[in-house]
C-alpha cells in the first residue's frame, strides 16, 4: 500500500524513491511484522487462554516431560498471521499477482489449521479434523494456487521444472506441473506441521527457510543477478522477498512467546499456514527441488513419520522409538533444549547448502 500511495503519487518527493527498492520494503515489512507481533502477542495469548480452559490436549503416549505443558494455549499461529498479513499488505506492490497467490495459500491453509485446532480444543482431544478431509482441502487450495500461478507466469516458464546445480536444465512438465506444484505445497505445509512439536523447534527453521527463499526470489526476479549467477529469470518474484521479510519478523515476534517454556503453541493454525507459504514461494520461484534441501529438516521429520507408519503396518515393528523424529531423540534421553538447538543447527547448515546451488552450476 505504501508503494502505491507514496511512490506512485504524482510529483512525489524524492525521499519516497526508497519505496521502489525491494530491499528497503523487505526491511520495513520485517520490522512492521515484528512490532505488531510484539504489541498484540500478549493480547492474543490472554484471549486464547480465556477461551481454551485446558489448553492444547497432550498426547497420552507422548514424552512424560510434555505433561508439565498441560494448560498451555494453542492457535498461537494467530500471532504470526496477525503480524504477517498487515505487513505484506502495507509494504508490497499490490499489482504483483504472485504476492496475492502466496497470501491466498497461506490464509487458506491457516483456515484449515484453525478448524483442526478448534476441534482439538473443543473436544479436549489430540484428534481434530479427519486427515482425509484436511488433505482434500489442502489439495484444493494448492491446486487453485498453482492454476493461478501458471495463468500469470511467463508462458515459457510456467510449467517448467528447474534442476539445481545445472545451468540450463529445465524439464517441461506440462499438465503434470499442476500435480507436482500442489504436491510441493501440500508436502511443505504438512512437513512443517509435523515439525512443530517442541517449544521453538519449528519457527526458527521456518525463518531460516524464509530468509533463504526470500534471497532466492529476489535473485531470480532480478535480471542482472539472474544472468550473473546463470539461473533462470522469473519476472516479479522479487516482490516475494517482502513477503518473506514479513514472515521472518512475525516469526521472531512469535518466538518471543514460544521460547521455552512456551506461553503459547503455534498449532496447526500457524504451522500449516507458514509451511504452505514456503511451498508456494518455492513453486513461484522455480526452486521446488531446492526447497527440499533448504527445508531438509522438515523433510526428515515427514519421512520419519512415513517410515514409522509403513514399518508398523507391514512388519508390526517400529523403526523409531517415537515419531516424528524429534520425539525419537527425546525418548533416547536428549533434553528438549538439546533437540531444539541441534535441529536449528541442522536447518542452518541445510539452508547454506541450498543457497550454494545458486553458484555451484
Task: Provide an overview of this structure.
By secondary structure, the chain is mainly α. 49% of the residues are buried. Helices cover 66% and strands 2% of the residues. The longest helix has 30 residues. It has one domain. It contains 14 helices and 2 strands. The mean pLDDT is 90. The protein has a two-stranded antiparallel sheet.
The residue fraction in helices comes out at 55-70%
Integer tally of domains? 1
Shape: globular
What is the number of strand segments? 2
N-to-C CA distance: 38 Å
Largest sheet: 2 strands, antiparallel
Radius of gyration: 20 Å
**What's the rounded overall pLDDT mean?**
90
User: What is the element string, with H for helices and E for strands?
Assistant: HHHHHEEHHHHHHHHH
Summary keywords:
361 residues; mainly alpha; globular
Strand-helix topology:
Blueprint: H1 2-7, H2 22-51, H3 77-91, H4 97-123, H5 131-152, E1 160-162, E2 170-172, H6 176-195, H7 203-220, H8 223-229, H9 240-258, H10 267-284, H11 288-294, H12 296-315, H13 325-331, H14 336-356
Antiparallel strand pairs: 1-2
Helix pairs in contact: 2-3, 2-9, 3-4, 3-9, 3-10, 4-5, 4-10, 5-6, 5-10, 6-10, 6-12, 7-9, 7-10, 7-14, 10-11, 11-12, 11-14
State the gist of this model.
The protein has 14 helices and 2 strands, in the order αααααββααααααααα. By secondary structure, the protein is an all-alpha fold.
Amino acid at each position: 500500500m505504501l508503494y502505491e500511495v507514496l511512490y506512485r503519487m504524482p510529483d512525489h518527493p524524492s525521499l519516497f524513491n526508497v519505496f521502489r527498492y525491494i530491499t528497503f520494503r523487505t526491511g520495513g515489512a520485517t520490522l512492521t511484522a515484528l512490532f505488531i507481533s510484539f504489541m498484540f502477542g500478549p493480547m492474543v495469548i490472554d484471549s486464547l487462554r480465556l477461551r481454551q480452559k485446558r489448553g492444547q490436549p497432550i498426547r497420552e503416549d507422548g514424552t512424560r516431560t510434555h505433561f508439565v505443558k498441560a494448560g498451555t494455549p494453542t492457535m498461537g499461529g494467530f500471532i504470526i498471521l496477525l503480524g504477517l498479513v498487515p505487513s505484506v499488505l502495507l509494504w508490497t506492490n499490490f499489482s504483483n499477482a504472485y504476492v496475492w497467490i502466496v497470501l491466498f495459500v497461506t490464509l487458506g491453509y491457516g483456515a484449515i489449521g484453525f478448524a483442526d485446532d478448534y476441534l482439538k480444543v473443543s473436544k479436549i482431544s489430540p484428534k481434530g479434523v479427519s486427515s482425509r478431509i484436511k488433505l482434500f482441502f489442502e489439495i484444493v487450495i494448492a491446486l487453485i494456487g498453482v492454476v493461478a500461478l501458471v495463468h500469470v507466469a511467463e508462458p515459457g516458464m510456467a510449467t517448467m521444472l528447474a534442476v539445481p546445480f545445472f545451468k540450463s536444465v529445465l524439464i517441461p512438465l506440462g499438465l503434470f506441473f499442476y500435480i507436482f506444484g500442489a504436491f510441493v505445497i501440500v508436502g511443505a505445509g504438512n512437513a512443517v506441521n509435523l515439525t512443530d512439536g517442541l517449544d521453538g523447534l519449528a519457527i526458527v527453521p521456518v525463518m531460516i527457510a524464509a530468509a533463504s527463499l526470500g534471497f532466492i526470489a529476489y535473485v531470480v526476479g532480478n535480471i542482472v543477478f539472474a544472468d550473473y549467477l546463470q539461473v533462470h529469470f522469473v519476472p516479479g518474484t522479487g516482490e516475494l522477498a517482502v513477503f518473506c521479510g514479513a514472515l521472518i519478523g512475525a516469526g521472531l515476534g512469535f518466538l518471543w512467546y514460544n521460547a521455552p517454556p512456551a506461553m503459547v503453541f503455534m498449532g496447526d493454525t500457524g504451522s500449516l499456514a507458514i509451511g504452505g507459504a514456503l511451498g508456494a514461494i518455492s513453486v513461484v520461484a522455480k526452486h521446488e527441488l531446492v526447497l527440499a534441501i533448504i527445508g531438509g529438516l522438515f523433510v526428515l521429520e515427514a519421512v520419519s513419520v512415513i517410515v514409522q507408519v509403513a514399518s508398523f503396518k507391514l512388519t508390526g515393528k517400529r523403526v523409531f522409538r517415537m515419531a516424528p523424529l524429534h520425539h525419537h531423540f527425546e525418548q533416547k534421553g536428549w533434553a528438549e533444549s538439546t533437540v531444539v538447538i541441534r535441529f536449528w543447527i541442522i536447518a542452518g547448515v541445510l539452508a547454506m547448502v541450498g543457497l550454494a546451488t545458486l553458484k555451484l552450476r
